[in-house]
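HOLO CASE FILE
Compound: flavin-adenine dinucleotide
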Amino acid sequence: MAREQKRAIVIGGGITGLAAAYRLKREAKNRDISLEITLLEASDRVGGVIHTEHRDGFIIEHGPDAFISTKPWAKALCEELGIADKLIGTNPKVRRSFVLRKGKLLPVPEGFYMMAPGAFGPFLKSPIFSWRGKFRIALDLFISRRSDIDDESVADFVRRRLGTEAFERIAQPMIGGIYTSDAENLSLKATFPRFLEMEREHGSIIKALLVQKRKATQTSRGTSGARYSLFLSFADGMQTLVDTLAEKLAGCIRLCSYVNGIEKKEDEGGWRVCLDDGEMLETDLICIALPAPQTSRILTNVSPPLAKKLAAIPYTSSATVNIAFRQVDIQHPLNGMGFVVPITEQLNLIGCSFSSVKFENRAPTKYVLLRAFVGGNTFEGNANRNTTQIDLESLALKDVSNLLGIKDRPLFSIVSQHSQAMAQYLVGHQKLVSEIGELVKDLPSFALAGNAYHGIGIPDCIHSGERAALTLLDTI
Ligand SMILES: Cc1cc2nc3c(=O)[nH]c(=O)nc-3n(C[C@H](O)[C@H](O)[C@H](O)COP(=O)(O)OP(=O)(O)OC[C@H]3O[C@@H](n4cnc5c(N)ncnc54)[C@H](O)[C@@H]3O)c2cc1C
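Model generated. Tokens follow.
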């Protein structure tokens, strides 16, 4: 007897939607389910914010330039796709980064992790902190654990345990660089639960980092070292992952297909998907893999309470400015991965990666590729004033040139604006996400995935897409 064919639609062709569609395809085959999958993408390309461009021997990342290997889902997917051999780690010779302090780039002390030292020697010698600030940081060893379990902001946590200097001079720029957001409002539970665990388990962040370092040394003894570097990219850029998934999904992807809304088919079950050209598609299973504001708009008529909760997850905009120089035109030795800029320095930049130092092959010999990052509040302020690409380029160029002692004009620079692409996990985010989860349960054969819920990084988005796919298949 012929198996009944089912249909699945995934809305959004960023990494989340691609991972969801791929997992639907693979797992349907494993479960012997006949499934027709369609991935609907509004633009004329898949990948969303992941986008690599090759120009004159440079490999330019418009969006993300790497993913973290300690969260397993991205590297597991690369292994499954057969592209793990194309992964590259960061340059092992330059592990350090810089932080801007009073207009000077100072190295982050060796062993320092986001907010606290994991080694005393380099920390005590570092000019980033005053002696008073160092003393306050060390008090973390003696300050007792917080007893209540309410969420708190990252800023409150760092100030409580390690003091204002640790927050303003290093934690804020590091965390701001990752989340493009204001650490005063960022939920610790949703963004850095590991620090909360450290406090609970060891009563001190410094103690926890020292224990972690000792364990890592013991584990690495007698082994040939970690298989993967902490941050990974691909020899040809992040696009490798997107292109491989797109190849595996050949025949399933529909580009230039903007989804306006969806409707529940009350009588027969299943869903209708409405495209902006008036076309209606029918499906049994549906996964929305979009940023929360777009998801909220699509769900306005289906579930107003769910749409309202999704709209409560704010997003910010950011821009990357890739700039190519001749090496001889840069005075700074570029002996690190890049730098971050505290808000207190009042610049337009929030950071800059030395891309061609961080990863091999990003620029031809004798040339350098830098990737400046403008984002969060500064960017929103600028965006409100209708910032053009030229404005962003000159803002980034001015700061980067001043800080790195660059006298000459660049060979080229490329501005990439990412409007409302970064979810902000505010204090109470996890509670909001669990309420969203409860409302989703009321919608049959329906799943949400993306960077709005359980992590903004690429591994989290892949995990979210894969989980949504498995949940949908379980409903058949
Ligand atoms: C500048 C920048 C740098 C980053 N750097 C890193 C990094 O180095 N490492 C890391 O791990 N993470 C990084 N992130 C975070 C990570 O890249 C993103 O969270 C992740 O890629 C989001 O993927 P997504 O598929 O959920 O969303 P998106 O990439 O936003 O994709 C959503 C897709 O849906 C489409 N779409 C929108 N509306 C509709 C509609 N109505 N109908 C149909 N299609 C629609 C869009 O065109 C888009 O293709 C970065 C993010 C940004 C913005």
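CASE NOTES: The radius of gyration is 23 Å. The pocket of flavin-adenine dinucleotide is lined by residues 11-17, 40-43, 48-50, 63-67, 258-259, 289-291, 294, 318, 320, 418, 421-422, 450-451, 456-458, 461 (CB under 6 Å).
CLOSED: yes
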